Automatic annotation (TrEMBL):
It comes from Paenibacillus sophorae. One of its GO terms (molecular function) is pyrimidine-specific mismatch base pair DNA N-glycosylase activity. Coiled coil: none annotated. Keywords: DNA damage, DNA repair, Hydrolase. InterPro entries: MUG/TDG, Uracil-DNA_glycosylase-like, Uracil-DNA_glycosylase-like_sf. Residues 9-153 form the Uracil-DNA glycosylase-like domain. One of its GO terms (biological process) is base-excision repair, AP site formation. It comes from the Bacteria. Gene3D superfamilies: Uracil-DNA glycosylase-like domain (3.40.470.10). This is G/U mismatch-specific uracil-DNA glycosylase.
């Protein structure tokens, strides 16, 4: 099964980073394609997207300033199927992607994704204040996993993503000062 293609570009507001693609995502070639995954509903209900998008439209979110990647590219049934070697290699590849593209915010979709990447033992929901980011200049935000297996109330999950939305609205667009 092929890895799901990253959607990355320069000047993005947010890059969403998952563990790895699901088997369904690997089959169809789009991020968060498992129908039991709540990612697209969470983005819409938190105000991050103006409408409910489908996984097949993941590339269209580049126009909104959002990109997608994973710490490990290989699709699996679950994160427990990822090897230590894959995490090690993925950590370096992800660091290089963030250093090259320099999004304003790296949003880790799950605490485990962040702790695997940062090698820190714990994380709080939201921005990782008071810690040096792994990649200078890229703010780190930890959000709950959107998997249907997560045992957190949906309203609580949406509230955390809403904080991400509010933070993007508070920061002025650096190009807005230039006449167009």
């Amino acid at each position: 099964m092929n890895p799901v293609e990253d959607h990355m570009d320069y000047g993005l507001q947010i890059v969403f980073i998952g563990f790895n693609p699901s088997l369904r995502s690997g089959e169809v070639g789009h991020h968060y394609a498992n129908p039991r995954n709540n990612f697209w509903r969470i983005l819409y209900r938190s105000g991050l997207t103006p409408r409910l998008y489908d996984a097949s439209e993941d590339g269209d979110l580049l126009k909104l300033g959002y990109g997608f990647t994973n710490i490990v590219a290989r699709p699996t049934r679950g994160a427990e199927d990822i090897t230590r070697e894959e995490y090690g290699e993925g950590r370096e590849l992800l660091r290089a992607k963030l250093a090259e593209y320099r999004p304003q915010i790296a949003c880790f979709v799950g605490k485990g994704v962040y702790t695997e990447f940062s090698r820190r033992t714990k994380a709080n929901w939201g921005f990782q204040e008071g810690m040096d980011p792994v990649v200078d200049g890229v703010r780190e935000f930890v959000a709950p996993s959107s998997s249907g297996l997560v045992r957190m109330a949906m309203d609580e999950i949406i509230g955390i993503y809403r904080r991400l939305n509010e933070a993007t609205r508070e920061r002025p667009d650096p190009e807005s000062d230039f006449p167009g």
